[in-house]
Design brief:
alpha+beta, 5-stranded mixed β-sheet, 4-stranded mixed β-sheet, 24 strands, binds uridine-diphosphate-N-acetylgalactosamine, binds manganese (II) ion, signal-anchor, manganese
């Protein structure tokens, strides 16, 4: 080395230093990746994250993650300060009228919202200690994001509070812009003032969808215009809890094929109280019911065990759909949204099934907390409402659910009609997408991603109303008990399926089975004991349909009988079978 000339020595030394820095960075990344749950399923990452050669090793400092806008000082006694509920004083008649109008317009208390600061603080960071200790590495670094908020006639105060809460919490270095996409609001105030108002906020822009087409196409408009690497969608009545953005972006860096949602905290629709995270709360995953309704369910024990600490993601079968982050390039790769879906509804399940079936993952990141005002019903007008929403659901069932779509059609007469009459539009582009991405089938999704699901019979042996041929009356579920009544169709309470496992199930969305108890004459409805694929039913819920049309219970050996106006369980008679003879009609 001594014999080399000075410039060569400097060159070699530089090379060694560069080598060590690169090695160090790769090591950090590898260690972090190893800590995480391995991804199951097909992973074809379309996003290649090239490590930034200029990034410094180590973790981001507080200064580097400084929010875009500093929150003005708060008066802790101000209405709703620190996320506290709005307390109303004695109201004048006029104020009462204002409250009522606010509810009619928004289905939440606009009166309260209008009196709470647009900049309100949410107080102390109450997340789990693991979240507070989480570090974010400079290499390969967190990506930038565009925040996209679609709205239709949103109240000024909730919309602007959503915008400010992003500006007050998202690190300036990571926040490219906020795009407000107006889905053809008719509210004059919004139309006249919003553009001008947000101009002072420099990184906020308003885009407009001329005709009301709904949140799905509005989000697509925003996604197309977005300049950030990551798209972050929010509803127009949200508030972000401190530190919400970094955990979402950090997870995307680790797993670029993930679609990540924050933990959604509720903001009270009457008093706008922000329900802060509590460290020891129950964890939930997003699920779906066979009527294609979204829901929450506490996560199964085995899944809990896979998470070593609170910073780990929760792999979720579905997501609520309003609040999430995804790489823009992955969003495009995986087929954005079905742009033929209209207005509202269904796009969240469509995206959940698609992402899982086509090799990605849907996750909830508990360290990221965003509040949302959940309301009981929608304040928006829906021209041809129910039809449009059901049509969206039929589109997703047709594309992603294979033979399982029939379960949905059995439960939803309108959907069955839309399917039969082919009123759901053309889905060939979506079928092509499924083909192109070589996505897995729905049965794989159920078995691997949501094995806890209540599994209905794909083709029940018999279904319909259960009629006692002797008394010409039909069985009906009433709460936990069983009634009999004339055979006039009364919807779900009178629709039964006789499964291949010999259960008499109420419509599969309700998950109740006809149940016998030893020593009791009364039959009841209880949760079906059979869950998951390939398991057998419990004898108290097994009913053998005999050749003489009796329904004989396996546990008690007794038969379903109509006696004195009730449905009971009595000893099986050989003949006559008058009160023990049943048929599905
Ligand atoms: C839930 C989701 C929402 C979406 C929807 C099903 C959460 C928190 N929210 O909505 O993101 O997945 O279920 O489609 O997960 N909007 C329009 N045009 C319309 C109707 C609504 O722009 O025609 C906007 C609306 O202003 C709001 C967003 O879309 O910002 C969601 O609508 P919502 O808040 O009325 O319904 P929500 O929260 O039940
Ligand atoms: Mn909402």
């Amino acid at each position: 080395f001594r014999r080399l000339t000075f410039p060569v020595k400097v060159g070699i030394s530089c090379l060694i230093v560069v080598f060590f820095i690169t090695w160090h960075n790769i090591n950090i990344r590898d260690n972090r990746l190893q800590q995480h749950i391995p991804a199951t399923g097909l992973v074809r990452p379309p996003v290649v994250l090239l490590p930034d050669p200029h990034c410094l090793p180590g973790i981001y400092s507080k200064e580097e993650l400084k929010p875009h806008l500093q929150r003005p000082l708060q008066d802790p006694r101000a209405p709703g300060a620190n996320g506290k509920p709005f307390v109303s004083h004695r109201m004048t008649l006029k104020e009462r009228e204002e409250i009522l109008n606010g509810f009619v317009k928004n289905q939440f208390n606009q009166f309260a919202s209008d009196r709470i600061s647009l900049h309100r603080d949410l107080g102390k960071d109450t997340r789990h200690p693991d979240c507070l200790e989480q570090k974010f590495w400079r290499c390969p670094g967190l990506p930038t994001t565009s925040v996209i908020i679609v709205f239709h006639n949103e109240a000024w105060s909730t919309l602007l509070r959503t915008v400010y809460s992003v500006l007050h919490t998202a690190p300036a270095a990571l926040l490219t812009e906020i795009l407000l996409v107006d889905d053809a609001s008719t509210d004059d105030h919004l139309k006249a003032r919003l553009d001008k108002y947000v101009r002072q906020l420099s990184i906020v822009r308003v885009l407009r969808q001329r005709k009301r087409r709904g949140l799905i196409t509005a989000r697509l408009l925003g996604a197309q215009a977005a300049q950030g690497k990551v798209l972050t969608f929010l509803d127009s009545h949200c508030e972000c809890f401190p530190g919400w953005l970094e955990p979402l972006l950090a997870r995307l860096v680790e797993q670029p094929t993930a679609v990540v949602s924050p933990q959604i905290a509720t903001i009270g629709l009457k008093d706008l109280k922000f329900n802060k995270p509590v460290p020891k709360r129950k964890l939930y995953q997003g699920i779906f019911k066979w009527q294609l309704k979204f829901g929450w369910e506490s996560i199964p024990e085995e899944k809990k065990k896979l998470r070593k600490n609170e910073t780990y993601p929760i792999r979720s079968p579905t997501f609520a759909g309003g609040l999430f982050s995804v790489f823009k390039s992955y969003f495009e790769h995986i087929g954005t949204y079905d742009d033929q879906m209209e207005l509202w509804g269904g796009e969240n399940l469509e995206m959940s099934f698609r992402v899982w079936q086509c090799g990605g993952q849907v996750e909830i990141i508990p360290c990221s907390v965003v509040g949302h005002i959940y309301r009981k019903s929608s304040p928006h007008t829906f021209p041809n409402g129910r039809f449009v929403i059901t049509r969206n659901l039929v589109r997703l069932a047709e594309v992603w659910m294979d033979e399982y779509k029939r379960v949905f059609y059995r439960l939803n007469k309108r959907a069955a009609f839309i399917f039969k009459e082919k009123l759901f539009g053309n889905v060939s582009a979506r079928h092509n997408l499924r083909e192109r991405l070589q996505c897995r089938n729905f049965s794989w999704y159920l078995n691997n991603i949501y094995p806890e699901i209540y599994m209905p019979d794909l083709q029940p042996v018999m279904h319909g109303q259960l009629e006692n041929t002797g008394w010409m009356c039909c069985m009906k579920q009433k709460g936990e008990s069983v009634q009999q009544l004339k055979c006039s169709y009364e919807g779900a309470a009178q629709y039964f399926e006789y499964t291949s496992q010999h259960e008499v199930r109420l419509s599969p969305g309700i998950e109740l089975c006809l149940h016998a108890t030893l020593g009791r004459v009364w039959v009841s409805f209880e949760l079906c004991r059979l869950k998951g694929n390939g398991k057998t039913a419990a004898p108290e819920q097994v009913w053998i349909f005999t050749q003489t049309n009796q329904l004989k219970n396996l546990l008690t050996g007794n038969c379903l009988t109509v006696s004195e106006g009730n449905v009971t369980l009595t000893a099986c008679k050989e003949s006559p079978l008058f009160s023990q003879s049943w048929v599905f009609i």
